[in-house]
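Section 3.1: Structural characterization of target chains.
Under the original work plan, the team committed to producing a structural model for every single-chain target entering the pipeline before any wet-lab resources were allocated. The record below documents one such target. The sequence was received from the expression subgroup and is listed exactly as submitted; it comprises 157 residues.
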Amino acid sequence: MSQLRRCCVVGCDGTNKTHRLFKFPRNDKLRELWLSFLIPVNVMLSGLSKEQLLGRYVCHKHFDRHQFDGTGNRLAHGYPCLFTPQEILYGVPLRSISDNGLTDHNYSQQPTDFDTEEINSVTGEAVGKTMATTLESVELINNLFDKCFHITLEVQR
């Protein structure tokens, strides 16, 4: 019987029984790229050695469609970039930054000593910023894809 493997993204229920899992890459630059996306949503990964990371997995839910070829195989230099429920639902990495520096991708690092008024204030700001016009959203997404594309090119070099 095969060992049950789990996705290392905090809050994800993906296992090798329910989802396609991908091992951390052996290539140092690509593994660093993965970590740049994953550490904000799982700070526990930051203290692991290369050998320990190579035993970790990320499920297919966290990869957007641009990380796969036309037949559904993950590209050699693909990286996980979908972490919030909205990103997974729409298959597009989104990012909203509030005035206090918290982003959708570092919610696991948010302080827990907020009072209710502060939570409502931060939530209101995030909702307001998320309600951008369609053109602004498309522009943000295009810029993010451009940045990811350039990072991928750097990794390939």
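Residues 23 and 57 are 5 Å apart (CA to CA).
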